[in-house]
Amino acid sequence: MRNLVILGGGTAGTMMSAKMRRALDPKEWSITIVDQDNEHIYQPGLLFIPFGIYRAKDVVKPRSRYVPSGVDLVLSEIDVIDHEANEVRLADGSTLPYDFLVIATGSRIVPAEVEGLTGPGWHENIFDFYTLEGAQGLFRALERFEEGRLVLNVAEMPIKCPVAPLEFMFLADWYFHQKGVRDKVELVYATPLDGAFTKPRASSLLGGLLEKKGVKVETLFNVSSVDGEARTISSWDERVLSYDLLVTIPTHMGSEAVERSGLGDDLAFVPTNKHTLQADAAENIFVIGDATNLPSSKAGSVAHFQGEVLEKNLLRAIEGRELLPDFDGHANCFIESGFDKAVLIDFNYDTEPLPGRFPLPGVGPMSLLQESEANHWGKMAFRWIYWNQLLAGKELPLVDSKMSLLGKWS
User: Fold this and answer.
1) Does the pLDDT at position 410 exceed 80?
2) CATH fold label, 2-109+253-318
3) Scanning 36, 95, 352, 375, which has the fewest C-beta atoms within 10 Å of its C-beta?
């Protein structure tokens, strides 16, 4: 019996376990997936919890429910990956030998990386929404917030779902309008980027939306420290922003197990071939999702597109065949813009988001690089698709792993 071990039971790991269980003969291959607990969180849904649109029950399900039959689920923290011995050591000292390893350990927020962030005010008037605890605390804080300055700060890139901070500001504008206090609330978006987004065309559109909604943008704001008692946030170029409520997108890093194993870069993301998804460290290790160091978005759609390529390349590696350089960095993101509208962007390593229609060229029904109600309902429908299609490793109709230029215009 040969062993495939998948580290991480989130989006990418669960999806790959389903794909590979279908592809590999169960008489010849054992598949084991490892995660520290039995809580699977639909991470895109955390954005909606602060605004009362979703509750915890909408985004948290038992992990074991989505691990396919024939795959062993091990609930344990990972101690070390020994890529020379081809084994994974767990927290209790037991080991899992592998013939092939898939690292899908995702990313984590590390708020302590910013001086003072977890000091006075942490989870009182300073919140993240990238964790369930932070999102629920922010829900309660927003319920009480009637006037003052709300500052959202992105500490540094990369982060999970790079558009989520923008979505938060758009939804905050809608939320305070709904409460009837928008004229009493100042919204400030402080980003280390030189614009609203990394891709110029999308940055221009999204920056225009922020301006239209009265959100002040502080670009190239590289945070140095937070003073919770004075309620100020400072940048390395000595700019200081005061706040009444601070929403933070903290530094993101890869898994601590990856860090302990010496397999990560400075932020503990795994150096990975950007087209084949093979780890630089060993030929029998592959990486998927947020755990990679790739210059693609850390988003569920990217994990889905990577999964199609990784399935083929794992099978080719098992057979001793040459890997396919087929992952092009494809990302597809809905950007909730408030008032039941959203923007949809579709891009890859080399092509920035372009206008057009999606997924059917000339027909849609969704529009690219433009606000529409159809895009909003596409965003809301994705939660069902996630739980019922994506985690099961099923292909999504009309959406290919490689970005298509059909239906787009420059």
Assistant:
1) no
2) FAD/NAD(P)-binding domain (3.50.50)
3) 95
